[in-house]
Amino acid sequence: MNPGPPLEIAVLGGGSWGTTLAHLCAQAGGRVRFWMRDHDTVREIREHRTNGRYTGPVALAPSIEPTNDLAAAVLGARLVLVVVPSAAARAVIRELGGVVLADQIVVHAIKGLEEGTGWTVSRVVREETAIRKLGVLSGPNIAPEILAGLPAATVVASDYPEVIGVAQGALTGPRFRVYANDDVIGVELGGALKNIIAIASGAITGLGLGENARSLLMTRGMAEIGRFAVHRGARLLTLAGLVGMGDLVATCASTHSRNYRVGLALAQGRLLADILRELGMVAEGVRTTRIVRTVAEREGVYMPITVALARVLDAELDVQSAVAELMARPARAEVEGDRVVPR
Question: Are 217 and 305 in contact (CB under 8 A)?
């Protein structure tokens, strides 16, 4: 970060990723006000510098100021990072809209879509607030590894170079790189849709189907992600980078991934409600799978893996039967003519 007064940053959302981003910003020299609803977590961070539920015993940067007061967190912030579950996004963004100024920079790091509308979070932000300088952050970002100081990178996308520059300055460190992109919809959808394939990958592993099967799943899953994202206006090349293939590789074999762990448990025949209760944290892919199935069927986007997984999540089909149905589909050309996102 350039010499001078510390950058004023608000981080909204006290989960594992929000905590990690707050820590990164503070390490990079920012003055961080860290908002969450839970009073006990605010007290814990203030007194012990830990967020035990989400990030264990990791000592958080001393300059992080936890608060339950959203208006106080946002007041004077040059950069506002929104890092809440997608299910809570509209409510938090609406509340944010009442206190944020139009010239403040807002970057969300939510890997999910809105239920009912199928909207991206940036669209919700534009509907609920007067914010113009908006961006999205996404990438292969496994929070425990980043908190442990292991090398990683992410992507910030925006229509405004200023947004990207401020976010890069706020987050870049010796072990964390921030790349720029102007394909906002591609970065949003790449991050959200890979969670679907991460659940399916966990199920493949749980069934013991081997690396060939996982490679097949990831490759054809990437085709589905591309097909849906391009249908929504994304650039296919974006999905070949960190937010698509990079994030997919990171989460399709990592026990740190909640979505992957959901798939593992489904393959063991466990009930989804029990899995999510035991997980104790949000697995965005569960909601996203159902949302994308609905949108894909309504808009005619061919997504057989997503549809099969949605049927498993809704107890219409067991995992073994889903695999059998997918393998029994009629054979097709991998690439059809000049189509780069084949059916």
Answer: yes
